[in-house]
Amino acid sequence: MSAIAFTGGRGNEGLSALLSAFGMLAGTSVLAECTFTYSRLLRLMDPQNVRKRPVPSIPRFNFDADRCSHCFKCLDICKHNAIMRYGDLIHYAEHRCTACGSCIRWCPLSVLQFEYDDDVLLSYAESRYGPLLYTDSIVDALHQPAMTSVILEQARQMMNVRKIHQLHIRLPRGQGEAAAIAASSADAVVIVTAPYPYALADLKSLVLFSRKCGHLPLVLINKVHPSNIILTDVLNTYCQGEGIPVAGKIPYDPLFPEAEQLGLSVIEYDSATNCTSAVKEAWINISQRIANIT
Amino acid sequence: MPKPLTIAFYSPVSGNGSSLLALNLFEYYRSFCESENYVLLDCDISYPTLRYYLEVGEAHTTDVYAEMPHILREKCILCKVCEKACHFGAIRISGSINQVTFVEKKCIACGACLNTCRHAAIVPRDHKIGKYMVSELEEKTFLIDAGQDVPERFHVPVIQAMKAKAMNYSFVIIDAKPGLSAESLESIYDADLLIMVADARSFAGMHCNTILPDLKKLTAKQSILINRCAGKPVHVHEYAIQHNIPIIYEMPFDEKFQLTGMNGEIAVKKQTDYLSAFDTIASNIEKILNS
Ligand code: SF4
Ligand code: SF4
Ligand code: SF4
Ligand code: SF4
Q: Distance between CA atoms of B157 and B65, rounded to whole angstroms?
């Protein structure tokens, strides 16, 4: 059994398109989609037979505007600027609330209450590449580490039950605690970069991040084009200097957006072009590396 | 001081090209529209992008603080009330060493524990939770962004501090953090105009119905800019009609525009071909703001 964690940096690197192609090439695998935004990858995966299950969360705060008497006692209490006054009305900015509960103690009418929210749902689905786990609920940064652990635990159970040997983890965006939990639990980390002006800075920080999580990463350089060959070289040279294997260089190709528009991986869309052979070669390199590690 | 005009570029999913559009519109306004000064606010703390496209001058750094508990062990009677109050496991009372421990790395500075101790054993203490930088770009033109090292649990308060700083300027363009979580909502909160960037190719796959009510509560006015169009983006139009949000522009899929972006260039600065697109965008923005 092996688990590969993929990360793409800020989101322009084309990771979703590559992951769907790798899913196709891997045969059957479990995919744990841990990005907590709407995911392009999900569209490419085309989840079927979706089942949802609530996941226990920390309390949310409930403000019942209809019952508020506008006494404004709660206003100065909130240190997080979540309660504001607009004219004669109280406005509650839920996204700022940390559920500290200070305001509850002041509200004479108990308009402010805690409630445990079971809106956070974990989705189990089937895709043409194998089982898929994700959430399309809104999960704030504060709750992402816990949610990531739940997704990964369920994905591993799924592997056992269904006797599937490969797990692909799409890491949460960023390099915070949630991403660290997921990367540390994997056998290898693959960083997809693309020659953007900020790419070297991102790559350096992602390499540091994956080392902290216990891995020497593999790097894939995507979107290589004659006009960005200098930046591509900079990325390549950096990897060589650090002893980081470059698993492949994939050309910039309008084939990717065309395939995405149809909801297909690039392999399904047209399997006999330069860019698809580069994708296949990259996948062979990644697989070999994983086989050596595990 | 009057509140500045604030325009926020936002996308529910990363990789829609909203940073590049924000940079171009900023450059357009800076060159052609009169304002006392201009500030560009990069709220994507996990991955600050904008500075890589700009010539960033000297930076002035401001630290952001929040209150965390400090426990006075001599007063503590180990009643465990504070341990229960903390939803994040940042206060632990261990039986074996018989004392209360505070785990700073887990604390989100919510303040719940500060209310609970009946023995005056918890006092607030300021901790540095992050920092942001104000850098001069050109005369009267500034960039505000934050260091990548701000832990995610403090993104909302740090973005709040950055926005408070931006209120001292007269014209603000915000590049929001993509997504739907609290940090993204904080980046657009209270903006005069939201520009939601929709990628024509991937929009069909998004479950958009859940997004809108929030957006209308969070911002004064909303608009949609469709990016990378090839053919008519039917799904985005349906969405716009259904929710009554105007579309300010349909940006065609243009390889040259994409590649200028990859090469770290701001298209309207280098090539006049794109000026007319931003002329239209700016005049549509004005119409919406005046409506
Ligand atoms: S629970 Fe705390 S953060 Fe939330 S509104 Fe009340 S005082 Fe503010
Ligand atoms: S304390 Fe309660 S009743 Fe008074 S303004 Fe706040 S929410 Fe309304
Ligand atoms: S401030 Fe909040 S997170 Fe920090 S220790 Fe107290 S209750 Fe826990
Ligand atoms: S609530 Fe106060 S007395 Fe009780 S364990 Fe916490 S610090 Fe100690």
A: 9
Domain assignment of residue B111, given as a range: 73-120
Domain of B105, CATH number, reads 3.30.70.20
pTM score, whole prediction: 0.89
Whether B267 contacts B24, CB under 8 Å? yes
Helix boundaries (H) for A61-198? 144-162, 177-185
Nearest CA to ligand 4 atom 3: B76
| Domain ranges within chain A, ordered by starting residue | 2-56+122-293, 59-116
- Considering only CA atoms, which of A294, A212, A89, A141 is closest in space to residue B181? A141
The superfamily in CATH containing domain A2-56+122-293 is: P-loop containing nucleotide triphosphate hydrolases (3.40.50.300)
CA-CA distance, B164 to B167, in Å (whole number)? 5
- The packing angle between helices A199-212 and A229-242, to 10°, is 20
Measure the CA–CA gap between A11 and A196, rounded to whole angstroms: 11
Residues B197 and B244 in one domain: yes
Chain A residues within 8 A of B49 when measuring between CB atoms: 10, 198
Q: Give the model confidence (pLDDT) of A4-15 as tens digits.
A: 999 998 888 999
pLDDT in tens, A131-157: 999 988 888 888 888 899 999 999 999
Residue ranges around ligand 3 (CB below 6 Å): B 68-69, 85-86, 88, 90-91, 107-113
Could you tell me if A5 and A183 are in contact, meaning their C-beta atoms sit under 8 angstroms apart?
A: yes
Residue B85 neighbours by CB distance under 10 Å: 19
Q: Are A17 and A194 in contact (CB under 8 A)?
A: no
Rounded to the nearest 10 degrees, the angle between the axes of helix A144-162 and helix A177-185 is 20
